[in-house]
Every structure is written in C-alpha cells, then in structure tokens.
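=== RUN LOG ===
request id: a7f3
mode: sequence -> structure
chains: 1
length: 879
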Amino acid sequence: MSGTELRDPARVSRGTWPLRDYPSVGWLLAAIVVLVIQRSIASAEWLLVHLVFLGALSHAVIVWSFHFTETLLRSPATLAARRGQNWRIGLLLGAGLAVVIGVPIGFWPLVLLGATLAAVAVGWHGWTLARMLRSSLPGRFRITIRYYLAAVASLTIGAALGATLALGLPGEWHGRLLIGHTMANLLGWIGFTVTGTLVTFWPTILRTRMDERAERFARQAFPVLIAGLAVLIAGALLGIRPLAFVGLVGYLAGIAWWARALWRPMRASPPREFAPASVGASLVWALAGLAWVVVLLATTADWTQVAARFRPIALVFALGMAAQLLIGALSHLIPAVLGGGPGVVRAAAALFNKGATIRLVVTNAALLLMVLPVPPLVRWTVGALGVLAFASFIPLLFRAVRAGIAARTPAEHGTLPPKDTPKAGWSSGQLVAGLAALVIAVSLGVGMDPAAAGLTPLSSPWGISTSAQPTGEVVRLTVHARGMTFVPNQVTVNPGDQLVIELVNDDPTTTHDLSIAGRTTPRLAPGERAELDVGVINNSVQGWCTIAGHRQMGMVFDVIVAGDSQPSPHSEHGTTAEPPIVIDPDAKLAAQVDPVLAPLSDERVHRITLTVEEVALEVAPGIWQQRWTYNGSSVGPTLHGRVGDVFEVTLVNNGTMGHSIDFHAGELAPDEPMRTIPPGESLVYRFTANRAGIWMYHCSTMPMSAHIAAGMHGAVVIEPDGLPEVDRSYVLVQSEVYLTSPATSRDEATEVDASQVATKQPDLVGFNGVAFQYDQFPLAARVGERVRFWVLAAGPNLGTSFHIVGGQFDTVYFEGGYQLRGGVDAFGEAGGGSQALGLLPAQGGFVEIVFPEAGNYPVVNHTMSDAERGAHGIVHVTD
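=== RESULT ===
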C-alpha cells in the first residue's frame, strides 16, 4: 500500500484490487472449463450452476453492493473497510470451494462447512451495510441498501436449505428443498441485489437520466417482493404447490411494478453498448426462466417431478441470466473503478465494446438453440460456438485493465488518453457474421449426424423403407419415460407418414433414451427432453430404451402402420446360450482384487463412502467389460464389523444412470435408504448390524439382475461373538458375468447383456468379480495353519457349491449358525467333516480348513460348468 493511499483513503477503492477483481473471473473460467468437458463430469450441470451463482455472481454481489453502498451513502473508502472486505471475500471464496468440492464427493460435513462460511461472510457483510446505513445522513435511495439487507437474509435461508438438500433426502423432500433453496438464492440473494442496484445503475450504463419516480417504485415494490418470496419458500417447504405458485406470481407482480423505473431510461437511450445490452438480455432470460417455473409449479403432479424437470431451467438462469448479467455489469464497472479520470474510463470501456453485436447474437442464439429440442450434435456444435463467444469476455477484460493502466500513465507508455470514445452501436456486419457462424455450427452438427436431423432415409430392414411414398403428413407425439415404461407406449400411423417423437424423461431417479429403427435420442437425465425424427414410416417397427436391462423390464415402444398386426423388433442377443468364452492362455491380469479380510478395527461406528462409477475392467484374463461398480472395483469393498456396530454409508452416484444400494445386514424400511438416486446425487444409509454372518449388499435399481451382474454387489462380514482368531482369513464373493461381446481391450468394452442375464447362462463365473484371477494370483497358506474362507453367493442367478480339492472342512458356519465347529456337530458328536459349502444366491457363511501338506489346492465351485467358466482358483500351501 503506497503512502499516498494512506494519506488519501478515497483512493483505496481505486485501481486494481486482486481480491475484488480476480475471483469472479476465476469462477467464470472454471465454469467455461466445465462447459467444455461436461460430458466427462457426472454432476456437470450442478457444478456449472454453483460455479456461476455461488462463485462468480455471489462474489460480485458482496463486492459491488458494498461499493454501491459506499457511493450512495457517501461513506469514505478507508483502509480498515478494505481489510474487512478482504476477510469477507476470503470467507466467501472458501465457502464456494467447500461446497463445489463437498457435494460431488458426497462429503456432507464439507458442504455444511461451506454453507456456514457463506452465512458468516454474508451475515458480516449485511451487518457492515446496516452500520453504514444507520450512521449515514438522510439521502436518496437508502431503499437500495434495504434491498441489500433483504438479500443477505435470503442467502442465510438459502444456505441452510442447501446444506439440508445435500443430505440426500427422499424424492418429495428433495423437490421441495430444491425449489426453496433455489428461489431463496435466485430471487432473494441475487434478485434483491439486482433490483436494488438497477434502479440507479440502469440509467448510468445507458448514459441517460433516471426516471424521477424510480425511488418511489422501488419502495413500493419492496414489500411485495419480500411477501412473494416468503410465500413461495413457505409453499415449497410445506409441500403446497398452489401456495408456492401464488408466491411466485406475487413476486413477478412486484417485479412488474419495479420494472417501470427502467422503462423511461431505456426509451430515452436504447442500449447501444455491450454493457447495457448484456444486462438487458440477462433480464429477458430471467423472466423467461421464472415463467418456466410458473408453468412447472402449475402443471407437475408432485414435487418429485418438479425436481426432475428443473435442470434445464437452472441452466437458463445460470447461463442466460447470471453469466450475462455479470459480464455486462463488469464491462461498465471495471473501467469505472480503475480511476484516473474520464480518459482512463473511456480507454478501458472501449475494449468491452469490441465485437459487441456478434458476441451478444451468438451467445443468446446459441443458448436458445440449446434449450430447444435440436439434435444432440447440433446442440454440441452450437454450444461450443456460444462458449467461445462468452469466453471472449475474459481476454477483453485483461486488455481493458491494461488499457486503463496505460491511459493513467501516458507519459510512461508513450500514449495519451483518447479524447472521446464513441458508443459501440449495432453493427449490421457483425450481425450477419454472427448469424452466419450459427448457420455453420448448425450445419456441422447436422452433417455429423444427419439421421438425427431426419435427413437420411433408413433401409427397410429397420422398418423404414426408401421406397415409401411420403404422404406429407407429420405425426408428432410426446412420449414420457416413467419408471420402466413409455407413456404412451405405441402410436399408429399411415404408410408414408413421417413420425417425430419428443421424449421427456419424467423418471426422477435414472436416465432413459429411445431407439427406433436405428435412430436414438441421447441418454436423457431426469427432466431432460429430446426430439427423435424417425423419418417416413412404411412398416411397423418396435423401439426400446437401450440402457442395459430397461428393454427387458418393458421399456418398448411400438410404431404400428395401419393395417399391420405386429411391429417387427430388431433382433438382439438371442436367448440361446453362447459358446463358452475362450480365454487366451497367455493373457495376464494386470491386478487382482485383494481377497484378504482386513482385521477388525476398534471403531464401533464405521463411516464409508461408496461412489458409483461406470468403468471398463477386466472380468477374466484379456476379457474386458464396462462394469457398474462401487468404488471402481469389480466387486464392492468388504465391510467388516461386530454385532452392534453402526455403519454410516454415503452413496454417491457418479454414474450415467440411476443406482441404489440395499444392505442385507441392516433392518429398516427400504423406502428411503434404498431408493434409486439419479446421477450427481447422494444419500446416507445408516444401519446397525444386529446379527452375525456374511451379508450381501447390492444395487436394487431395476432391473436388479442386470445391476448385480454388472458388478454392483459386495459383502458385509459381521463376526459372531467369540469368534476365535485364525492364521489367515479370506473373502470370496462369487458372481456371474454376462457379456454383450467378448471385448479384448478396454476401449472395446461393452455393458452387461441384460437379455442374457434372463437366460441364467453366464459367459463367466468368478470370485470377487474376475474369472480365474486366483489361478494367476494364488491364495497363500502354510502347512498346519488354520485358514478361514468367508464365502458369499452374490448371483444374481446362481449359487455355489464351494469346495477345495484335496481338503476337508472341520468348521462350517452357514447363514448365521454353526453346522460343524472343530469337527463337532450340533448334537455334540465329534469327528465330522464337510466337503462343500452349498449356498443359494444371496446366502453366505464360512468354512475353516487346516492343510496337511505343501502343494497347490484348487478352489472351485463344484457346479463344474461354473468352475470351468472361471469360479476357480488355487491355494498355494508351503511348509
């Protein structure tokens, strides 16, 4: 800090200020990165919204509401005030990082910390503004600061609801909390700040006079806005949608009254520069988004459906409203706070008007096309162009700062401040260029996927004939995916009609798509929709959801041509068992699943996070499959405890479809903890292990057989009281593998063949998710050691007859009780032994054995065809 600044506190707020100027830019850069790589991020939409709102826009709210309060109340900018502002900005920055990290990884304490830090930072900010208001002299527009204080109160409520939302409560509560949290932050924290500021800021950026009635309109609208928001949040939390609807309509009525203050300045001086045009576009998107929410509250059946359909609305608010509002405001404010006189401001402001027309046209048109039901690749190409137009603000920002600094010191840089900087105006050339760029982007998307745009006719084997005589009629139909059905599930058309289907995913828990005659929609997250142009129909045909197992659960759609009796489904994997998979004898597994049972810990409360990941893994030497996993392994991690232990399991769904979890070791109603959660969400499952045994856990999302077969299963070992120690203890979980194709590389891996699961004829059977792995990685033991094998038959269809060739079991524990213990049976008779532990699917137990001499002892499922498919291993015994 220079001595000049210490002597002149008014200069404290001028010039560059890193904590003021850079965080919003950093958050925006992070949001741009997420937009670019969103297909590889499971929670991309959620992350994008919070990077913009909680990160970039909330930082701007704290910074600029403080700046406007100083200006309106004529409070001196002091060094002490700047230090306090730095602390508040730092706290809010930490809050944003905690939330955007804590929610995706499912760590609720970090989310709670973030919500608390946000409340503290914003509460401190509000207290500072209130003190400034009380100590100021009477003046105009003190109502603006009251808007800011109402915004602070709203953020506190929104943060609390957000932290509660992160707990992963059931669907109905999730929808209610989502609306309460979103509206408190959007209409309160952001909305009150924007409405309070624009009364004076709007005519400033338009460079015209204010409507003399503006302050009165703001005062009159203020109680209406507060009442509307309060009723809206109360209606959401109470679960009364009509009440929430009334509250939102009331809020919009207050906005309509307040907006009268903006009309006269805009008529006197329409937006001709980038800053007011960007802010104006953001207000249009805000109204469009709120109208969409009004329709949502009026037409949905329940709060679960409200949550399921809210995602595209959130993106409209984040990209259409928040992002454009921020860059528009900064385009005016950054030059102003650089200081140095009118010449400096003009020099910096001129940079933000570069390419204003093309940037605005491309950004807003691209967002409009992304909201409309266009083909997926068109959405991608147009979206990429929109991101490029939006991201151009970042280099312009840095160039503007450099230009302003240069203009402040003309002698040093050899330049003089320009005498005048003309307004940008609207450029017809840029308008044409922007529209041309959009046409090219759309054409690229159509060219990469002409079928999705309905431009490529399909051949007759799919049910669409190139020889069909088009009638010119277009049959349009909206189809809803609900549960494991399409509603409606058929349509009748005349030969030659064109069929266009809009698919809407109303399922709040999982993704769906629709494939008809070789044309397929993208996989739709809950609430998303897409258009499928099937083309000209000549023959009846059947379509289905392509997600593994969904077709087998009944997700089929029949297109019937008038006069035909039956649609013709495209053939899939047959119901006849395929020949056994041939394993390359020279193929080597890269790694094994460790079968050793970890020792008991002293903890009686076990906290575990199980993250759903869909990854390609080896299921046999040289054979790969796209597995659905808990924590990225072919079998879920083994949980180990005693009777009476408490398990607190956080399930995080980072997959591409709905998943769930069911613990047989717990006793509680399945409605909430075992519910299916959609991608990007999490839940907490807490149970007490009251009984001993080896218990199965698995995904219970339908079709359950496919989810279990794909790898979503594991074991919970609860030791009986007094269980004696042994020299070694292993866990072997048997399961089946059903391959769509025997892929020999990671890149070729395909998902589980759900239709073959129904035949109960697997391609592979293995222990701990990988066939033959313990042939390549033998289990170890020594002569004379007592070795315990915990065994679980995970299925989904087949049990096991667990046997060790060359050995006999003197202890057998089956489904919670001993059949033999040290060779003694239940009647006290000694000298008995066992050759096999027979288990049906989901049953488990353990056996104990002492190996008499060194050698290799095969471990097999004595259903020998299953052993030959991979349920085989070796115990290597040494002296």
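=== NOTES ===
The chain has 24 helices and 30 strands.
Confidence is low (pLDDT under 50) at residues 1-13, 411-422, 456-468, 568-579.
=== END ===
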